TrEMBL record:
It holds the Pfam family Copper-bind. Residues 1-20 form the signal peptide. Residues 57-174 form the Blue (type 1) copper domain. This is Outer membrane protein H.8.
Length: 176
C-alpha cells in the first residue's frame, strides 16, 4: 500500500525535473543505485557441462513449438554440420520452423521483431543478415535441412524466427 502514497511524490519530482526548475534541492537519491555493472564478456551457460561436444548435430522441431535440444556444444574453428528436422504435421503456414544461429551480442527480441515482418523471405530479415551466423530454411511438416558452418569461440543464441516462436524455441550453442 505504501507505494500508492509514494507515487505522487515521484510524479511531482519528475515533473519538476522535466521543467528544469531551479528548486531541485531535494534531488532524489534513489536514481544512483540503478547504475548496473555490465555482464562479463564470457557468458556462463548453466548445464553446458552435461552436454557432449559434437560438431554433428541433429535438432528436431515439432507441433508443440519446441526444439528437442536447447544446449549445444561444439568445437570452435571446425565445421559444424547441423540438421534441423520438422517432425510435426501442421502446415508450414501456421507451424513452420527454422533454426537461426545469431551472432553473440545480438538482441534476440529486436531480431525476432524484424523477422516477423519478413514473411516473404521465410522470416530471414534481409535488414539483419549481419546478425546471423548461420540459418536453415523454413521447414514445413516432415521436411529437413542440413547446413554447415564454422563458429569462433563464443556463446551463440539460436532461435526459430517464425512469428511468436522465439520465446520458447531458443537455445544456446557454446563454441569452445
Ligand atoms: Cu518454430
Amino acid at each position: 500500500m505504501k507505494r500508492l502514497f509514494i507515487f505522487p511524490a515521484v510524479a511531482i519530482a519528475l515533473s519538476l525535473a522535466a521543467c528544469g526548475g531551479s528548486e531541485n534541492k531535494n534531488t532524489s537519491t534513489d536514481t544512483e543505485e540503478t547504475s548496473a555493472t555490465e555482464t562479463p564478456a564470457t557468458e556462463t551457460v548453466p548445464g553446458i557441462e552435461n552436454v557432449e561436444v559434437s560438431n554433428t548435430i541433429v535438432v528436431e522441431s515439432n507441433d508443440q513449438m519446441k526444439f528437442d535440444k536447447e544446449l549445444l556444444r561444439v568445437k570452435a574453428g571446425e565445421t559444424v554440420t547441423l540438421t534441423l528436422k520438422n517432425v510435426g504435421t501442421l502446415p508450414k503456414e501456421s507451424m513452420g520452423h527454422n533454426l537461426i544461429v545469431l551472432k553473440p551480442g545480438v538482441d534476440v527480441a529486436t531480431f525476432a521483431g524484424e523477422a516477423t515482418g519478413a514473411a516473404d523471405a521465410d522470416y530471414i530479415p534481409k535488414t539483419s543478415l549481419s546478425s546471423i551466423a548461420a540459418h536453415t530454411k523454413l521447414l514445413g511438416p516432415g521436411e529437413e535441412d542440413k547446413i554447415s558452418f564454422t563458429l569462433e569461440k563464443g556463446v551463440y543464441t539460436f532461435i526459430c524466427s517464425f512469428p511468436g516462436h522465439y520465446g520458447v524455441m531458443q537455445g544456446k550453442i557454446v563454441a569452445e
